[in-house]
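Quick one: structure for this chain?
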Amino acid sequence: MIAVLASAIATTGCSDYLEEDNKAGATADLTYSTKAGIDGLVSSCYAFARGFYGKEAGLGLGEGGTDLFQTGKDNKQKLLVLYDLTADALNDDQNNNPCLDHYWELFYCATDVCNNALYWVPLNTMLDEKTKNQYLGEAYFLRAFYYFHMVNIWGAIPYNSEPVTVVNTAPTRMSEEEVYSKIIEDLDNAIAKFEAAGATKKADAKGRAYYWSARAFKARVLLYEASWLNKADLYSKAQSEAEAVIGSGEFSFYTNYDDTWSMLNEDVTTNKEAIFAITYSDNLGSAESQNCVPKRYKTDANGAQLNYVNIITRQNSWGGNAMLNMFVPLWNNGCNDIGGNNTAGGDAKAKGVFGRAESNPLNYINPNTGLTVNVTPYYAPYGRGFTRYVPSLYLWELLEKYRATDQRTEGTMLTVYRCAPGLEGCMPNYPQNDVDTIIYYSALNGDSPEGQAAQALAKNRYRIQFAYGGDIPVYTSGNVATAIPKPFGSSKKAVSDVYGDARYNNDNISGQTSFPSIKKFMETPFDAGNMTKEMSKRDAFVMRLAEVYLIKAECQVAQGNSAGALSTINELRSVRAIAGKDNSRTGTVNIDTILEERAIELCGEQQRWFDLKRTHKLVEYVKARNAEAAGQIQEKHYYRPIPQTQIDACTNIAAYPGGEGMFWQNQGY
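Got it. Here's what it folds into:
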């Protein structure tokens, strides 16, 4: 917290981060006079971002409580995503924690480390000027990066531009406009330093910040400031930055959209479209891995530094990217319909022809042929059924709207779960199972003529779950304004309408546990050396070329150039088109069009809440498309509450709207 933040500096290795023997005074002078000391200091500036990007809690802040996702059975942040949150700190609660107090501390710790880098790098005599400029560019970039997230979560915030050396119990909140000005100033400094260092090639950046990541991020920041603070003059500047990135020649699109998300291309340094990412290594499970998140400055009663809450760190497995499991249903769900063969030397958790693959090989025996089948390469990419987030009916229908022409529908939404080759026909409850389909999620109304025809085709062959209607629907309604995933605990079907038996007499066929998943983060193709775990080595892409096109299009709309925006959107849609298909849009483009395109392209990438907030569409869209949260959301929710622990630590508290030299809680909390 600001009031208790001491000058502690991260160095290298998880066990060394933010030790009690803070590197201040003579110790810091000695450490940061060496090249190794400065190398570690600048590297540590990145570590805090691994607590947000690719992490469950950061996903909740970026996607939860929007029009695109609703809660699965085991969602860990329901207070946050259902807008039932308060300023109270829930400490290490792993089951329902908004984590706002943790992020307040984490981001301020991050900026303090950046400030220390900006202080010590110029003083180091062991670095050449090129390296100094590179390191200063990174520190400026990352300080802007962290403050950008804070100002968009909390609004006016205290701003520190120097290392913290004394306790401050009377911090003041800087206006959003001033914070944005500081962020742009930092990005301009970063751009200048990167240019001086010659850091203009992504291939040379090795996953770190560089010239084009700073310019792309500047385009995003300018767009946010323009849209949220209604500063129309900034749209042209944001567009200029976007056009420079597009024309740089550093980035390009894959012909096949799936290649954007292939694990063969997960590394930001080799991915053609990725501009900037938070990097993760394949050294999962190591306490010294670059994947780990620093310890907190906060200590326990014995003075030992605490860890951030587990849904931020995943310290039980020493970090990594959690997105592979955040949108996954209980696909091996143990419902009574899927079953019928045994495992050989395999996993006791396996259910019928389906089972979570945590070993290689995981062998199943086909009871009809007696042949042993290694199912691991086919089931491991499906991930673990954590049931955190369910795509909303709105998102599902939006993607289906363009299925015939756009690669992103198939590349984003997994609607068919298949058995491993060699296990077809192994489900006694579906005796005519002559295909590899096990579960099929159909976007149709199960009660419509088309739905009934699809049900007839599926009967005795595989399970079919319709978006709504039919025997076992995913959602309670076909109206996006009222639809919610069918709740766990009220979805048993004692007697199936189709089969007349109890095969669906199990809550695991509820919409909160069995639903189509977002597949872009899945571990495909299968890597035998990296079995499905709780975490992945996948780099968390923060900015991609597609977003820059969408920034440009939004700027064109804001400046009254609908035709230009349509052309820009169609450039992107053309590279996402199914071969031989016309994927272009027609008509007038407005902000709703832009947000629709951003939903199609960026869903799940920790941006949607911020998009709806900055465009002033949050309350409107949630009320229209997310019935879970519609009754709770209010205008106050455009800001998150300042953590109560920070309020309690301040001596200059005033009632909203505060005043000069005062600190206050956001309105309504």
